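Obj: model holo form, ligand = ribose-5-phosphate.
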Amino acid sequence: MTPPLLVSMPGNERLTDDLAATLRYELGHLEIRAFPDGETYLRFLTNPKSRSLAIVCTLSQPNEKLLPLIFSAATARELGASKIGLVAPYLAYMRQDRRFKPGEAVTSRQVARLLSDAFDWLVTVDPHLHLHSSLADIYSIPTHVVHAAPLIANWIKANVTDPLIIGPDSESEQWVAAVASDVGAPYSVLEKVRHGDRDVEIRLNDLEQWKGRRPVLVDDIISTGRTMIEAVRLLSSQEWPSPVCVAVHGLFADDADSLLHRLGARVVTTNSVPHATNAIDIGKALATYIATQGGPT
Ligand code: R5P
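Output (holo structure tokens):
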């Protein structure tokens, strides 16, 4: 029987190799390069005809990735692939989930439409679900969400003594509550007001009863890092031990990781976006779902 194919978009080779080894899938190869004018040249070097195929592409810095990704799926379809899945450990654009100001684009919906038209199924890790209650609200294809909370909890159990789990804002409570219950540690959720992309205000709760524990800030995304940076600053102003900042997705715009390190924080992320802070592997959890979709052809 011919195994399904796994194809890596540029930058996703490590996770794709691991998934292929775990699943015993064949690695498919693409040639992708930019023409001198910036347009994309794309060619399948492995024939996907009549084969089930999954394309691995995390969607950090999504604008440069989305068009080549859509071209890959469309080309696989034209070449006769039987089923085309998308493994996008980080799913971009989920935070623009409503028209906050008149005239704004609700890009979560638009990206969902693009990807639903191009693919037959999608698996991702903890998408930012806030105003959309599930991916099914905006995606018309079967989707599956891998939850990183148990993996984060395992990492904390193995690496932090007497943790106090802290969520920097109300949206983080879904992860923080699950992680704290799994770790068997107390948790607290702070209040955040975002005034702008890089302007975040956080109010610290009364955490005195847990003094002596190591603060572990848990959030889904570190983007500009302002949320984590403000929380770390507040904790150090109240003489807490240096915190650990754990995020599912480390995007690190503005060198946010260096800023956090300079403040004395340890920063840990999952490998949903390749980065030096990756310490928590989501590969096995992704593979478990992909196995249900790939099916030998
Ligand atoms: C927002 O609601 C998310 O859960 C994160 O708190 C946010 O995306 C972090 O962004 P930044 O790192 O830019 O403060």
